[in-house]
Design brief:
The chain is built from 5 helices and 6 strands; from the N terminus they run H-E-E-H-E-E-H-E-H-E-H. The protein has 198 residues and is an alpha/beta fold. It folds into 2 domains: 30 residues; 158 residues, Lysozyme-like, CATH 3.40.80.10.
């Protein structure tokens, strides 16, 4: 009788552990999808940017040497709408302005998830393959970025600078051209540079 009770208890314990494991697997968030876009909400607090390093291909410190920032030259958009036919999203990250995606939302593109180089945005023929490319939604030749966009950009850039040891002199912003390859004439370059690491 005592032996049967031990078997019943052991069997019940194994069954409960199996059920708990299955439930945890079911509830676990999926990894970044190679063809999809993951987002970090503008309301995230704390070390939320650690999520950008949870990619399908492990980011390597020696892989990335520069950070390139530009605007979309559109009044609205998202990672999905900025993707181009045959190329997909040119950038690693897109930061929303509240029209097309949340203000300050950081969208993570497939190129970052697979640690692939960026594609050249409209207005330039090529882009350095060791560049991390960030696009801010907005036309900054006609208006300024939102304060939330600039704050989230500085958080993202300083996180990337720290992880990949990228100095401020390697944070590139073109402003001598009127195209999507620049940051636009109303982007606060000096104030932004004061917020990032030297």
């Amino acid at each position: 009788m005592r032996s049967n009770r031990k078997i019943v208890v052991l069997t019940s314990l194994v069954a409960m552990l199996s059920l708990a494991s299955a439930l945890l697997l079911f509830l676990a968030p999926p990894p970044l999808a190679a063809e999809g876009f993951n987002s970090l909400s503008a309301s995230d607090h704390g070390p939320f940017l650690d999520e950008i390093f949870k990619t399908s291909v492990l980011p390597k410190v020696e892989r990335w040497k520069f950070i390139y920032i530009h605007h979309s030259a559109t009044s609205s958009g998202s990672a999905h709408t900025l993707a181009r036919a045959g190329i997909g999203l040119c950038d690693h990250f897109v930061i929303g302005n509240g029209d097309g995606c949340q203000d300050g939302e950081i969208q993570i593109g497939p190129r970052w998830n697979t640690q692939q180089p960026p594609a050249a945005p409209p207005g330039v023929d090529s882009i350095q393959p060791t560049c991390i490319s960030i696009c801010l939604v907005g036309d900054f030749d006609h208006s300024m970025p939102t304060p939330t966009q600039v704050r989230r950009l500085s958080q993202l850039v300083t996180t990337l600078q720290t992880q990949f040891r990228i100095g401020a002199d390697k944070v590139i912003m073109l402003n001598d051209t009127v195209s999507a390859s620049s940051v636009g004439r109303y982007f606060p370059v000096t104030a932004f540079r004061d917020q990032i690491l030297p």
